[in-house]
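Students often ask why we bother encoding 3D structure as a string. The short answer is that it lets us treat folding as translation between two languages. Here is a chain of 117 residues written in the first language.
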Amino acid sequence: QVQLVESGGGLVQPGGSLRLSCAASGMSFRLNNMGWFRQAPGKEREFVAAISWYGGRTYADSVKGRFTISRDNAKNTVYLQMNSLNAEDTALYYCATGDNWPPTKYWGQGTQVTVSS
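And here it is in the second language, the structure alphabet:
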């Protein structure tokens, strides 16, 4: 079955950077769209970024210019490079995949990102 395992979350100071990773298995990774979503306490899950199977990218306005999504088909892994982090980026970050857009058919368990001084 499809399995997505996120890693790379943690505590970072405002203005800092983190890189999240999501390792996928049980699927044809190179043929599927990949995405990142996040959910802050008391808020609904929201879209962050997605990358299509052929490399097209889209971002939420709130992260455009600060976050970069990329994929390594040889490693079945998608990344989210996050720069210039601020407190509003604090959330549980989820990886997702699917043949829809943005991809939402399968989800990982999430990795926590906390931005605080």
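Translate back mentally: The mean pLDDT is 97. Keep this in mind for the problem set.
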